[in-house]
Amino acid sequence: MSQASSPMIYVCITCRRAGEPDAEPRPGALLADATEQAAVGTGVEVRRLRCLANCTRGPSAAMRCNGSWTYVFGGLDAGNADALVAGAKLLAGASDGILPWRGRPEILKRTLIARVPPSDFIESEP
Amino acid sequence: MSQASSPMIYVCITCRRAGEPDAEPRPGALLADATEQAAVGTGVEVRRLRCLANCTRGPSAAMRCNGSWTYVFGGLDAGNADALVAGAKLLAGASDGILPWRGRPEILKRTLIARVPPSDFIESEP
To answer: What is the pLDDT of residue A99?
Structure first.
């Protein structure tokens, strides 16, 4: 499996919280700001985007390294930025491309929405 | 953007329906069977896997072509196999890697869980 030079976090900047008024800045943008700040000096790259189509369960972020599974999280807020960066570093060190359960920040256990495999993935015992 | 030779559908074979007894075969396995059948002769490749971590909103499937966004759907059943294959073909023909809204099977409008960008994606106006 190939590994990218940098683990990557994608943060949806258009996410708002369900049922909350449409305030600016959007909670997603605040999460992106906080995650960028948390990632400084860590080697984790943060990309802002619109959108991850997880709109009813936002704010949302995804993470991957080349060759890893991609993980989508929802229901986040700016206070989870450090956990996202810690998770991305954990994923970057996983030789099987799977985000480990052990050592995973608690918030990334509770807020997982979905994961998708790398393109070349084939289940060993389908 | 690169395009794979085949559009790909990943079907989670461990998915059961929320609140239903743990019957075998699993609804996810039945969806995989039906999708494999629907894909015969279409050029769409179907891969069975466990799992997409969308367990509370299953049965689940994902689709992508190399270079496209990856789309995760939930709440599916075996009757949606043709729609999955039609969606994968639609995605394969999308030069921007985005599954078009127009022409998208209705079930793939209502059951989208999340989407994630290709690895090289950078938002044009972040």
So the answer is: 97
- The reply to whether residue B47 touches residue A8, judged by beta carbons under 8 angstroms, is no
User: What mean pLDDT is predicted for residues A77-94?
Assistant: 97
**Whole-model pTM?**
0.93
Contact criterion met (CB < 8 Å) for B121 and A70:
no
Name the residue among A13, A52, A74 with its Cβ closest to that of B116: A52
Q: Tell which of B3, B36, B113, B121 to mutate to test the A interface (max A CBs under 10 Å).
A: B113
The answer to whether the Cβ–Cβ distance between A50 and B114 falls below 8 Å is no
Residues of A in contact with B113 (CB under 8 A): 53-54, 113-114
Average confidence (pLDDT) over A69-83 = 97
Report pLDDT digits (tens) over A12-67. 998 888 777 777 899 999 999 999 999 999 999 999 999 999 989 989 999 998 78
Burial readout B66-78 (b: 16 or more C-beta within 10 A, e: otherwise): bbbbbbbbbbbeb
Residues 6 or more apart whose CB falls under 8 angstroms from that of B8 comprise A119, B44, B45, B46, B47, B63, B64, B65, B88
